[in-house]
Design goal:
The protein is an all-alpha fold and 179 residues long. The protein is 90% helix and 0% strand. It has helices spanning 2-24, 26-65, 73-91, 94-126, 131-176.
């Protein structure tokens, strides 16, 4: 009985989601996939920062500590190379995340343009006497814009946090490589 209620609730949610995507049009589907890519990259960076990057930094730090020469010209440049490696790996995908954040509202605005074209088409064909024909175009104009803005707003905060985290980890790693 409980399983059946859960199944019915899931079906209701899926039908509501289907209505939402239908009312938003094809551009809303593009915004969805763009948001999915954005959040995949954000989650990948957080997992990388918490699980893989500390191990890599520890390996590089150990290779630095194993060196007997830490003051020569070569040693200083090896230290700079290690810091650069840490910086590059920490900041990987961050420009792509910023680009996706910037693309979300632009794709939403494309949805606005497409929806307004549908409204004008409905006006040209039926005149002003069919508000139902115009309503579909208006929802296709507003829903993708809202979805793009929401995706961009959520991504901006996490993008900034990831940028600060990468700078912090690189700075801390550079401080640990004493010469």
């Amino acid at each position: 009985m409980l399983l059946q209620e859960i199944w019915l609730a899931l079906l209701d949610e899926f039908s509501a989601l289907e209505r939402f995507f239908t009312s938003g049009g094809d551009v809303l589907i593009a915004v969805f996939f763009l948001t999915l890519a954005l959040w995949t990259l954000i989650l990948e960076r957080y997992c990388y920062f918490f699980f893989l990057l500390p191990k890599k930094m520890q390996f590089w730090e150990n290779s630095w500590l194993d060196r007997s020469d830490k003051y020569s010209w070569n040693a200083r440049h090896i230290r700079l190379e290690l810091i650069s490696k840490a910086d590059l790996t920490a900041k990987r995908h961050l420009p792509l995340i910023k680009t996706l954040v910037a693309l979300c509202p632009l794709l939403g605005l494309l949805g606005t343009v497409v929806g307004m074209v549908e409204v004008f088409d409905a006006l040209a064909i039926t005149g002003t006497g069919s508000p139902r024909a115009m309503a579909a175009g208006i929802s296709r104009a507003t829903i993708p814009t809202m979805a793009g803005m929401v995706a961009a707003l959520s991504g901006i905060w996490f993008s900034a946090r990831l940028q600060k985290r990468a700078a912090f980890l690189t700075g801390r790693f550079a401080a640990r490589l004493q010469h």
